[in-house]
Amino acid sequence: MPAATVDKKKEEVVEVGEAAASVAVEKGSPKENRDSGHESSEAGTPDAERAMTPEMKEGEVIEEALYILHIELPSGDKFDVQVNNTEMLQEIHQVLLEREGTCHRTCYSLQLEGKPLDHFTEIRNVPGLKSGSTLVVVEEPYTLREARIHVRHVRDLSRMPEQGDAASAVDGMSLSYLPFVGLGEKKTEKGEKEKTFEGLPPEYVLPGTKDRSLSLIIPNAAIAANKTPYALKNLGLSPFNPPIPPRKLKGDVLYLFVDTIEKRRVYITCCTQGFYANGSDEHSFKPTPASGQKNAVYHSLVDLIAAVSPIFKRNFTALIKKRVDRPLLDRLPTPYPQFAWLAPPTEASEDALRADDATQPHRVGIEDHLPGQIRDWNEELQTTGEMARGNLNERLVRDRSIFKIHSDFISASVKGAQAVIEGNVMAINPADDPKTHMYIWNNIFFSLGFDVKDHYKEFGGDAAAFAATSADLQGVRAYAAVCDETKLATLGMAIVDYRGFRVTAQSIIPGILEREQEQSVVYGSIDSGKTVVSHEKYHELLEVAAKELKMLPHEVWNGKEGEEAEKVKLFTSFETKGIIGNDSRYYVLDLLRTFPPDVHYLPELNRVSDHAKEAGFPHSFPHKLVSYRHELVNAFVESRYMMFVRIATYHIQMKAKDMKEKAVADGTEVQLSKEQSAEINADAMKKAAEAVHSLDPEEFDIRFNPDCFSTTVKHVEEENLEAQRRLIVDCGEFLLTQQIPGLIADLVDCTVAPMDGEALVEQMHARGINVRYLGHVAKLAPTTVAWLRALIGSELVVRSAKHVFRGLFQSVKAEKTAAAAAHLLSCLLGGEGGVDSVAEPSKRKSGKKGGVRVRASTAAEWEMTSQKSLWKAICDDASFYYNYELTVSSADGLLEDWGVQKTALLRRMCRAFGIQLLAKDYNLSTSSRPIFVEDDVQNVYPVTKHREPEANDAKRLFTRGTQEMANGRLKEAYEYIAESVNLMTSVYGAMHGELAQALRSLARLSYILGDPQDALAQQHRAAVMAERCYGLDHAETITEYVNLAHMAFSNLLVPTALKLLYRARHLLMIAAGESHPFMSTIDGNIGVILFAVQEFDLACRFIQSAERIAAAAGETKRLKSALLNHVMARAHACRGDFRTALAAEKETYTIYSALFGAEHDKTKESNECLRQLTQQAVQFQKRMQDASKGTTNLAQLLPINSQQPSLSTIIDVLNVVNGIIVFSIREPSGEKEEAVGEKKDELSIEEVKEETKLEDEALD
To answer: Its family (predicted)?
Structure first.
């Protein structure tokens, strides 16, 4: 029951909260956390298993302590390092890699009293190691493996990461902006002239501007930083490798060459003892030491090159200093590849090692570290899932291992999918049709999203095969969440869309490739339900999963005839297959029918509710593999349970009332026996069960049979298929009558305001609404809400265009990829009159480059596409997929009819399909020529879907913290959320999107508790993580910029706050346009801060814009409007425009009077302000009259003395604008409790709730 589930969750949270006090993670607030953020890649490997304490008993609490260790370097220098005794010795190696003097050393060991120590041993497990011990860094002999690692490390250190690589997610890099924006402000030295105020807005962010500059998304400072001089021109392997046997016997390991900035080539020999310059030149090879270098053997390659190249020594020192000074969060890799849709201009640079690596498609990335080995992804994923989780520490180790291996698996899957589509991997079935090819690369199985062997022929062919992968992934996500309680195993899975193809990457079940499918499957069906098999062990394992996933166990016939015919019990759909691997694990796969079918898009069933028929359902759809989402199933069951409780309670109350009235009439007392009470309750339960269509007539039972509409599998006669089908129809009606109208109501009320189509889809999915209902949402959404209409119209077009692009790109040759992308984008965004097909023969003769187009007879499909044909295909697709009739023929028509601006359409299309453009300004209004050319397309990158493992204990603590915050217990909330941040850091490392959200909450709590400096630090971390993990212009990043600006202003960093707000405004204009409701918040912030620095003209302009946008969006937060009008009145008064000032203040007074009455302090304050403004207006008018008579100098007209609000008043206004309302709670004794939530004011809680319409989670 849901109620019992809630109680269970509460107990789990309390357990986690108590255990977290003693867990082996950094204690104190996150600002004290000294974790380097580097995650060990060995988690879950045999090496890592040695880190566990052998003597540790189950449930024993780890005793942690801080050790001060002395580190002695080979040079004799010493330094101290503070570490936690539960960390591995690997952390000390990480410290050495981050130190300026030791970062270039790789081949060494740490020794204690002459004994080498294992890197993967926990410090507390090292015999004899205690606080105050000395660890000696001892140089070790080089092997070929160690030499290659060292050479590549030196190559990486000798050049800064390039922004182009960051835009393409190379080595986990991603673009960032905040590291180039200082949070501090330089103080003016004595005698130095004060500079002009740096916070004035640039032209491109002023209200009403039409400029949408794309070149400014990537800051110029980042591009400038990318031009840092290299320390080396080139470093590579000599063609004389490998050493011949006689030289190998003398210690030669590797031969190198180095091209220095001085244009000198140095030939180097790596021997077991280190590196030395040999006597080779351009014409001869001599691996022995060069003349004069007899004894010059350097253990580090850096020391050798520094000895022969002064420029290297100078530049390398500068690079290392810059690298050390670079913020840690800007250096850490992201958990998953994060590509950017805009990239800075890049130039090819000489790099022999990179060329060697990138031109070997068989390389998987671990050859230097684990030569001759390949990772067994399935074994790693399953082993980590089976790790112990008896106490909090064990769960943290398990979650960290699962997350790290899953992150590595996704990165490998993306790299492998690109190699497959680019033709660099051989198919395991090369003789078959290319669409049916399957591949194995890096121990990962890859398949394409096409119908293989007509398996989906009856369900929609290729369209069904394409959708089946997404449905399967939804099932994997659902099962992965419940498999912790069972021994079921699911496959590692990722879906990669690249260049129009869908590639599914899966880990490999041991032994599945060695036998036929008929021999492998012991549960489910391999022929679409014609024959079904089952297994007792799977019954036992699937029972728990089926209960959690609301699946109804059901019996079917096995499909055989005669005596072999028998009943088979299924806990899932027949499509779900159970396979026992060679490792004796029980795997479930093909989970595409985990959830009930969506009857609204299966017209052949003709089973929809009356309400659905009125809405125009059922609709036809390209495929029949349509199902409801997991979120909808949970919401429906919860809704029916609440209905069940209400109805049962009502009947019990009515029965009690009747009995009481009868007793009163008879003059007796009501006395019920236990049997009578049970009978009344049972009768009420029956009536409630009947009302909610429960499958059990005696009690609440809402579960779904995903096979109840199937025509291929035959159910036994005892199954009540009609009742099961009715539940699915009810679920669909719940979607149409509750979920979709609820979403639209929230959007119209601005309770939620997604900034782009990606955020809109997230909101739909959170409510269980599939994207195929986008057309239905468009029909129901009011056309008067401009921002919402533009948002829905943009996503409708982008989704349809993506389908069209996908079909066209599949026929594009590799060398035409950029040309095809540029042409199709030009067709999509061109103006009326538009872009012609490039396949039409040109009328002009060839004389200039590009004068002749491709002849239609030899042209590819994309070359024959024109603007007219593309938009027709988009409109047809919108009708086919979303049942919405679009009547636009160009982007100009979309702008006119729907208000969709072209930059927003371009951005969303590139992000959805994976097109990376050059970051420059494009003339999107042109219609005479193509907008984009081939050189504008920098890359086509993969778009990935996968499940995301979670830090479960951290999530429970965070949820508990938000509950405490809602109840006003701020210190307790801070402690819970701070501990959740520590646990997230233990699991995810220091870089993750969920961690950013927790840090945002922590920053707000710090701010409310009166620690603005800590709030600024936490919010800065959150904003950097949002940039790195989501993207420079993602909706989450824009929100974090505004929050960071608020915290920066509270620390008096005014120019920094304004720069952040200007950037947020610029990004939001590109993503959604100026009519978006969040623009009102941004403009309100800018206006109030500009007013605080006495830029009154600009302040009025932004505040007026905020009011106009809020009114157009239909926002009802009148308290914010009153405060902004009050600030605007003051600004107009300072400008001498008293008429406008009075009008603004009257609006404030009207709002306060209506809300709080004439006797409220806020109303009185506004009334007093009106009186002062009236006096000042009269005084000003009198001076004007005197000036006209010549009795007063014109210079005396202004300034009129106007009371300037205090800093605290300005901050209070900003608090309300940003949704932070702080109110005081008085106890009966009269003592004030700590204030909570969100606005230092005398307002009552009820008034604040009424005006700000905060979510129920924010105020309880």
So the answer is: Belongs to the CLU family.
